[in-house]
Amino acid sequence: MKFSASQVAEIVNGKVEGNPDVLVSYVSKIEEGKKGTLSFLANPKYTSFIYDTEASIVLVNNDFKPEKEVKPTLIFVDDAYSAFAKLLEFYNKVKMNKSGISPKAHISSSATLGENVYVGEFAFIGDGAEIADNAKIYPQVYVGDNVKIGKETTLFPGSKVYADNIIGNKCNIHSGVIIGSDGFGFAPQGENYMKIAQIGNVILEDEVEIGSNSTIDRATLGSTIIRKGAKIDNLCQIAHNVEIGENTVIAAQTGISGSTKIGKNCLFGGQVGIIGHISIADEVKIAAQSGIGKSIRKQGEIVQGSPAFEIFKYKKSYIHFRNLNTIKNKVDELEKKLST
Predict the structure, then answer these.
(1) Active-site position among 106, 174, 240, 320
(2) Which of 49, 238, 277, 296 has its CA at a distance of 20 to 30 angstroms from the CA of residue 127?
(3) Are 68 and 155 contained in the same domain?
(4) Residues 124, 27 within the same domain
(5) What is the mean pLDDT of the chain?
(6) Is-catalytic flag, 240?
């Protein structure tokens, strides 16, 4: 796909200075710009690169005033970074604008598909499944019986959605994701364990994104729920009956145990571990590699450590953690002096 400077300017509501017909087909960093690519200048510390870059088009802020001649065509916008992000989104939509039903896909006769649905090779859509308008089911995706997939939702290659789960509108489910696998429920029976049937489901509300190879377990009873706008990174484990609030963001390798309730607008760093049957308040921030062993009830609290506690207290305590060996040596010296 190629775009001219004038077409780019129309998309980002910018003003062209230079050749409006110059074409680009890809993007690049300004310091690594090549002919036929588009770049942007938002951070002043990269200004020097605009005079040497080989990029064909560069987005710049309206207040940019070149100190010498520049080779690229410039497009002036209110905010170069935001305009570049908008272009990336536009490009991604065009690139992913697939359509049609592959004859190599299996679609149950009792499944229903909306308008302009894409179903790729070797995808499986089970009995009673409902796929809404403009949804995209990439190759080798499994959609179980009675699953509901909302409008403009994308399931990337190799993702699996077990039976009876519900996915809202404009969701992105990346490769390797498993939605609706059994919750980890077993009852001790002497030296063995009896598996407890997991008969609930998973509900993803609108605009949820699930990163590659993450798993979301179905509820034992009721539903595991991911609320509107939540974003979950790669390699996360969400256990049965968990609820995650609106617009909460969870980084990679985080694990959340069963029946924990998490508020809205929370931010969790990578490798956070959370025990089951607790509550996390709205707007809580948890630093990476923290362990949460009890409820956090204060809205907006920031915690770190394992077990986690208030972050500023943690940082003060950490100074002492690092100096424990020095402190011990001093205590040993004092004990020797006192004993002589």
Answers:
(1) 240
(2) 238
(3) no
(4) no
(5) 95
(6) yes
